[in-house]
Structures are given as structure tokens and as C-alpha cells.
Specification:
This protein is mainly α. The chain has one domain. The protein is about 85% helix and about 0% strand. It has ten helices and no strands. The longest helix is centred in the last third of the chain and has 39 residues.
Length: about 290
């Protein structure tokens, strides 16, 4: 009896160890999406009144958890009954990621000057401000849904060969870590400028360490968001390229002489460039001509 109990404990320990190792691998594979998720949400969560930033971020976080509660069961059902569909979704997701990355690079290289229009609007009422906040929260949750699908599918793709229980445990852990990690960091980022202002006001002296640090923090916020955007873009291409290389072995063989990171980046860039070109061609043929 005792030996059976200890054997069970040993099995549980092995399972937990395997789960931890696989969760680590799956989290690494979703790192690119998490970087982009972080950049997108930091941008969406900033720009509000200081007192409203955390409540709004909390509302988006709850929406993100709800998104994953919807996505996870569907993903597990697909894995159980249509495992081949996961690979197809992975590749389609990779095309989207590569497209998104290529589009960002295109916008950096060929920026479109937006005309500056000054609109003098009356002061918004409290109801209008709340309505505006709700719209932004909805927009952020929709964006999160798309990114959550990608995170879950990529995480699931890394453990497809494992038993269903392991898939459920690993992917659920990754989903929870992704949500808490991303929105926790976003909360810190959006409050950096507030912390900076407090440090600036802390000292009455014209020059002080607190004022210097505070000024740096205030000025750092837009740069942090911009740098996250750049890192996120590169990560998108790497993740997309990695998915193609791991699922279409002829690409992996074709680029086998290159370091894996370089191969993934090149693959992501090529797929992104092709998908972007096709999108622009489609847009030109079917939309521009009608105007």
C-alpha cells in the first residue's frame, strides 16, 4: 500500500517536472507574440487619465482571461479530434504574423503623412468619457482575442505529440502566464511616467537625483513603447519563420546552412513580403478601382 502511494507520488513528480519543462519550451515559442502583445497593450493602455489607467487595464485583463476561457476549450477539442487542423491554423497564423511584421516594416520605410486637423471640441461629459473608455477597452479585448488565439495555438503546437492531459496543463499554464505577465508588465510601463512626475515633485531643489530620475522616467515611456514595437516586429517575423521551418521541412533543409535565427528571420521576411504584396495587389484590384 505504502509503496503504491510513493509510486503515485513519484509519477506525479515526473508529470510535474515534464509539465514545467514543456511549459518553458512553449512559453519560449510564444515569446514573439508576447512581445507584440506587450507593445500593443502598452500603447492601448496609455493615454488615459492617470487615475483611470489601472481600472481600464484591469478591465482589459479580465477580458483577456475571458478570451482564453473561450479559446482554450476549442483548441483542446481540435487537438483531440482534428489535430491536423492545429498545423493548418499554425501556418495561417504564421502568415498573419509575418504579414503584420512586414506591414510594420513597410510603414517604417514608407511612412504616410497624415494631415493634421485641429478640431476644437467641447469638453466631454463624464458619460462621454466613460463611453470612450468602453470603446477602447472593447478594441483592446478584440485585439487581445486575436493575439490569444495565436499564443494558444503556438503553445499547443509545441506539445501536439503529448497526451491530451499534458496539452491541457501546459497550454493553460502558458495562457495564464501570458495574461498575468503581459498585463502586469503593461501596468508597470503605463505608470512609469506617473512615478516620474512624483519623483520630480518630490524635491524643491532645481537639481536633485529624484528630479533627474523622474525626468528620465517621464521621457522614457514613449521610447519604451517604441522599442517594444520594434522588438515585437522582429519577434513576429522570427516566430512566423520558425513555424514555417518547423512544419515545412523543405524550408528547413533549404536554409540548413544558416543559423536557425537567421533562417527564421529570412523565412518570416519572405512570407511577410509575399503576403503583404498580395494584400496590396488585392486591395488595388478590388477596392481602388471602384473609387
Amino acid at each position: 500500500m505504502a509503496s503504491g502511494f510513493f509510486a503515485l507520488l513519484d509519477d506525479i513528480a515526473v508529470l510535474m517536472d515534464d509539465m514545467a519543462a514543456m511549459s518553458k519550451v512553449a512559453t519560449k515559442k510564444t515569446a514573439g507574440i508576447l512581445g507584440d502583445d506587450l507593445a500593443v497593450n502598452a500603447e492601448k493602455a496609455s493615454g488615459f487619465v492617470s487615475s483611470r489607467e489601472i481600472p481600464i487595464l484591469w478591465a482589459i485583463t479580465k477580458g483577456s482571461f475571458l478570451n482564453k476561457l473561450i479559446i482554450l476549450p476549442i483548441a483542446f477539442l481540435l487537438s483531440a479530434f482534428l489535430p491536423w487542423a492545429i498545423t493548418i491554423i499554425l501556418l495561417l497564423g504564421a502568415i498573419y504574423l509575418a504579414f503584420e511584421g512586414a506591414e510594420k516594416i513597410y510603414e517604417w520605410l514608407f511612412p504616410h503623412d497624415k494631415p493634421k486637423i485641429e478640431i476644437k471640441s467641447p469638453k466631454l461629459s463624464e458619460a462621454e468619457i466613460l463611453a470612450s473608455e468602453k470603446d477602447k477597452i472593447k478594441s483592446a479585448i478584440v485585439t487581445d482575442f486575436i493575439l490569444s488565439v495565436e499564443i494558444v495555438i503556438i503553445a499547443l503546437g509545441s506539445v501536439l505529440e503529448e497526451i491530451l492531459l499534458m496539452q491541457i496543463l501546459v497550454v493553460s499554464i502558458v495562457a495564464i502566464i501570458a495574461t498575468i505577465g503581459v498585463y502586469g508588465i503593461v501596468a508597470l510601463i503605463v505608470r512609469i511616467d506617473d512615478l516620474g512626475w512624483r519623483l520630480v515633485k518630490w524635491s524643491d531643489k532645481k537639481k536633485s537625483i529624484s528630479k533627474t530620475i523622474g525626468t528620465i522616467l517621464v521621457q522614457a515611456l514613449p521610447w519604451i513603447i517604441k522599442s517594444l514595437s520594434v522588438i515585437g516586429t522582429v519577434a513576429l517575423l522570427l516566430v512566423a519563420g520558425g513555424i514555417f521551418m518547423h512544419n515545412l521541412h523543405f524550408i528547413e533543409e533549404l536554409l540548413s546552412s544558416l543559423p536557425s535565427l537567421v533562417g527564421e528571420l529570412i523565412t518570416g521576411l519572405i512570407v511577410g513580403a509575399i503576403s503583404l504584396a498580395l494584400f496590396k495587389l488585392f486591395k488595388y484590384l478590388f477596392f481602388n478601382k471602384k473609387q
